[in-house]
């Protein structure tokens, strides 16, 4: 079977698609550098057993759009290593180092953490090739998951969208699907703005508590290895029923495509802030618009992590990272929602138009040969 290597090519990229194989270490990996008009691409290294070139390309494009939307001096890229994300640390380190050696010369790609890699992996990459983001504090990093950079950005997005969505965070009831790094910190920052967590899930189950969970206790319980479904407040429910829970704010923060045409009609929230990447299908987003439920698109609302990574790369501080997230996401959400109203577009389509315009302009500054 022959595969057209340019089947993904369009007006933005991808600029490079590199297949890497090292028989000595068993490394099999793909790197996609999608677009570098705004600067060297930032994007994570994902370790997964079943990733495809197409998935890597789609993730790289998502980073191009997210970085452009956030107004960063960086393009988008992504890499995937075919492997077991739960492999012993030494085995993972061997693959990560082998990958880092292989991409040493691809200087317009700056690796970051993603599913299956973490700040230790990034320290191993930086040690070999002198560049990586999402590093441990000890080597100049800002630990973005520990400080909750993405969850903070979600809370900023929700605050900025209050008037457009006709809701108030003070007193709002919040549902979080996926109580991990993004979901937990989003709930924590929203609680500071007066909101209450009333529904929550993780990979082992779901729970609701109409009067509101005691958040600090729930976070401690989860951090010590418990599943939210076993917590001692509220009642256990089927994870699928979380969509219909009575609330103002609904935050998907786990896997793709959790909101679909077949389940979204039971949604009762006023606003959905997309913490996860591509958590709703296009059909679901169209239905939500018909139901007058506001959707804050993933690549605008969940950019807190990559903004933090960019601040780290340019040697900024943790305080600067948080201020930059607040400034950029707050401004961008308003710009997207105003454009959506003016041009009668879904928020995602308005955001795509803005991001694509920025990339197209950045591309005009590049030399052609
Ligand atoms: P995480 O692994 O820390 O948390 C994910 C949580 O989702 C876990 O609690 C897990 O138990 C739960 N989960 C998994 N499958 C589930 C299911 N079927 N139903 C309910 N819960 C389920 O990951 P994270 O870093 O919080 O990332 C969550 C999502 O946000 C991912 O899609 C990721 O790509 C995206 N994202 C993360 C960041 C970041 O800074 N970490 C930035 C942008 C986007």
List its salient traits.
13 helices, Rossmann fold, alpha/beta, single chain, seven-stranded mixed sheet, 2 domains, binds nicotinamide-adenine-dinucleotide, 369 residues, globular
Molecular structure report:
The protein has 369 residues and is of the alpha/beta class. It has two domains: 5-64 and 76-140, Leucine Dehydrogenase, chain A, domain 1 (Rossmann fold), CATH 3.40.50.10860; 149-304 and 332-354, 3-Layer(aba) Sandwich (Rossmann fold), CATH 3.40.50.720. The chain is 41% helix and 18% strand. It is built from 13 helices and twelve strands. The chain has helices spanning 53-69, 89-102, 119-129, 144-147, 149-160, 162-165, 181-192, 215-223, 282-290, 298-301, 304-313, 318-343, 347-364, and strands spanning 16-22, 27-35, 41-48, 76-82, 109-113, 173-177, 196-202, 205-208, 235-237, 249-252, 271-273, 294-296. The strands form two sheets. The protein has a seven-stranded mixed beta sheet with strand order 9-8-7-6-10-11-12. It has a five-stranded mixed beta sheet with strand order 1-2-4-3-5. The two termini are 34 Å apart. The model has no long low-confidence stretch (mean pLDDT 96). Bound molecules: nicotinamide-adenine-dinucleotide. The site of nicotinamide-adenine-dinucleotide (NAD) has 22 residues, from α4, α7 and β7. Nicotinamide-adenine-dinucleotide binds next to α4, α7 and β7.
């Amino acid at each position: 079977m022959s595969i057209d290597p340019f089947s993904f090519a369009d007006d933005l990229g991808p600029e490079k698609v590199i297949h890497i194989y090292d028989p000595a270490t068993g490394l099999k990996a793909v790197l996609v550098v999608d677009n570098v008009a705004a600067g060297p691409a930032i994007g994570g290294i994902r370790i997964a057993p079943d990733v495809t070139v197409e998935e890597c390309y789609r993730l790289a494009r998502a980073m191009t759009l997210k970085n452009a939307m956030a107004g960063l001096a960086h393009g988008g890229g992504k890499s995937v290593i075919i492997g077991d994300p739960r492999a012993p640390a030494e085995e993972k380190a061997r693959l990560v180092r082998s990958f880092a050696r292989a991409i040493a010369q691809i200087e317009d790609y700056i690796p970051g953490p993603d599913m299956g890699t973490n700040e230790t992996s990034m320290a191993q990459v930086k040690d070999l090739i002198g560049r990586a983001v999402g590093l441990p504090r000890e080597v100049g990093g800002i630990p973005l998951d520990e400080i909750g950079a993405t969850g903070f950005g979600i809370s900023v997005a929700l605050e900025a969208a209050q008037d457009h969505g006709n809701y108030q965070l003070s007193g709002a009831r919040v549902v979080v699907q996926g109580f991990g790094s993004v979901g937990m910190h989003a709930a924590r920052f929203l609680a500071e703005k007066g909101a209450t967590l009333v529904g929550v899930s993780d990979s082992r189950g779901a729970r609701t508590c109409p009067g509101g969970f005691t958040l600090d206790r729930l976070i401690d319980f989860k951090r010590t290895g418990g599943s939210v479904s076993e917590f001692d407040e509220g009642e256990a429910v089927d994870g699928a029923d979380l969509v219909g829970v009575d609330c103002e704010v609904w935050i998907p923060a786990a896997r793709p495509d959790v909101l679909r045409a077949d389940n979204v009609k039971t949604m009762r929230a006023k606003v959905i802030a997309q913490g996860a990447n591509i958590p709703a299908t296009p059909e679901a987003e169209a239905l939500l618009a018909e139901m007058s439920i506001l959707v804050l698109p993933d690549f605008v609302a969940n950019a807190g992590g990559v903004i933090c990574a960019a601040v780290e790369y340019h040697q900024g501080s943790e305080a600067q990272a948080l201020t930059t997230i607040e400034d950029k996401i707050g401004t961008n959400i308003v710009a997207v929602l105003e454009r959506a109203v003016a041009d009668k577009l879904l928020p995602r389509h308005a955001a795509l138009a803005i991001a694509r315009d920025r990339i197209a302009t950045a591309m005009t500054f590049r030399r052609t040969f």
